[in-house]
Amino acid sequence: MREDYFNKCIKKRVFEKITDMKYLLQLFIFIVCITVIFPQTINANEDELVRVRLENHIGNPSQLDIHIKGEYVTLDPTLPIKKGGIYTLTATDGSMHLNHLDETYQLQDSLVLIPKEYDREHVIYINERPYLGAIEFRLEGNNTIRPVNQLPLEDYLKGVVPFEVYPSWGLETLKAQALAARTYATTHINEEIDDTIKYQVYGGYTWKENTTKAVEQTKGEVITYNNRLISAFYSASNGGVTESNANVWGGKRLSYFPIKKDPYDPVHSWEFKLHETQIDLEQIEWDDPNWWENLEEKNKDIIASVKQRIAKNSSLDQIKILSVPKFELSNQRLASERRTKGSITIDYLQRLFDGTVLFRQFKMEDIPLNKIRPMIGGTRFKSYLIDSLEKQAGIYTMKGRGYGHGVGMSQWGAQVMGENGHSYRDIIDFYYPGTEVSSYKDIQGG
User: Fold this and answer.
1) FRET pair for 224, CA 20 to 30 Å: which of 141, 234, 278, 420?
2) Are 374 and 309 in contact (CB under 8 A)?
3) Same domain for 67 and 137
4) Cβ contacts of 320 within 8 Å, gap of 6 or more
């Protein structure tokens, strides 16, 4: 392990309440690095540690398969972790159990696995996906196991960039993405982030050659304004026009997030269709004992998201969507031509536990579209740069441009800039005007 990495970790608070001093001496250098347990800021530098909740690739599991490559230790000296061991971690009735061959260990609050050396020879595979660094497995509720990965910032970025853009893109574009991702991560360095689009998509130790090169060639570089880190927002495509941060999230308008035409964005067009009638009441065979189970909505993929929104305390299989009698946009537009408000009405059946079936209606009138878009799903309703919403022959068709909020860098636009010979600094200058590329360790008050 790198000496400087250890030196920075040693500055953390002293681990207490271990009576076996010999064991303490063996584990101290590793345990003090676990800020999942002892959160404390490390001095500002490129070896900051990142804590990442793993959700994207595993969901909410009650069982995980764990494969250990290299030597790992735990906080429990009575719990042996075997090099190359294959384990199953299960959660039942509010406790976790670790199974290895014919042995089962009941765990207390959590399981922490710490590599004896931080290098690429020490890897933890969770459901066959590899991760570097330390992992804490903790219990959420009674039956969900939540892994939290902790590793140095730069190696975290090597697991982010290939999942945020195509690794086959040009190096200058990948370097611009590395800067945006590093800047975004450092603004959340004292938080526990996750591996989803809520923060940044992270794929663990699934690195690619070109994206790794992009991270290494920009090591420690961040985007600043007046010597302070910016919130380096980015989205897949802005549809040809960038958006102001204030229009998306409110607050003060920041000069480096202007509304302006983007000649580089390839203006990805999209559309989706939604049937007004999902289930025809007149065609329901009420006398069939399996009539409820036989009901199927026409747009199953979209309706699954809709049910998530309206179900509340009901199980999803106890709701059937009949129709969407109203789906409209308001005429109000922002300076970027993005739409802001809309209305939707949903008629549905709800079956109660005693078998009673109720007709219900869910209605939202003239509300912000960020309340409606998640119901449809962001992979279909891709942006608020909407060109049209029409209903013909009982089918709604929405057409638009772009993918995402449109604030900051367009990833596809950056790709075009790179192809046209622009450097990563040119890309940063265009999408974050007035900012500078700085060294993180030189930032004062960042």
Assistant:
1) 420
2) yes
3) yes
4) 279, 292, 295, 297, 348, 349, 351
The pLDDT of 265-284, averaged and rounded, is 94
What is the residue-averaged pLDDT of the chain? 88
Shared-domain flag, residues 317 and 385: yes
170 and 236 part of one domain: yes
Half-sphere exposure of 24 (CA within 13 A, CB side): 8
Closest to 54 measured CA to CA, from 105, 115, 130: 130
Do 293 and 203 have their domain in common? no
Domain count, the chain: 3
pLDDT of the residue at 314: 66
The answer to whether 409 and 258 are in contact (CB under 8 A) is no
pLDDT at 339 over 60: yes
Same domain, residue pair 366 and 432: no
The pLDDT tens digits for 43-58 are 344 468 999 999 999 9
Nearest to 335 by CA among 270, 416, 253, 271: 253
* Domain of 77, in residue numbers: 3-151
Same domain, residue pair 231 and 282: no
Q: What is the DSSP letter of 391?
A: E
Instruction: Tell me how far apart the alpha carbons of residues 133 and 113 are, in angstroms, rounded to a whole number.
Output: 9
pTM of the predicted structure, to 2 decimals: 0.82
Q: Which two tokens stand for residue 126?
A: 């969770």
Give the Cβ contact number of residue 182 at 10 Å: 27
Could you report the per-residue pLDDT of 360-412, keeping only the tens digit for each?
999 999 999 999 999 999 999 999 999 999 999 999 999 999 999 999 999 99
Q: What does the CA dihedral 236, 237, 243, 244 come to, rounded to 10 degrees?
A: 20
pLDDT at 2 (0 to 100):
42
Q: Give me the DSSP letters along 89-144.
A: EEEETTEEEEEETTEEEE-SSEEEEEESS-STT-EEEETTEEE-SEEEEEEETTTE
**Tokens at 386, concatenated:** 């909407």
231 in the same domain as 135: no
Residue 238 banded pLDDT, cuts 50, 70, 90: very high
Name the domain boundary from 95, 130, 151: 151
Res 200: pLDDT: 95
Residue 355 tokens, joined: 């078998």
- Does residue 72 sit in the same domain as residue 86? yes
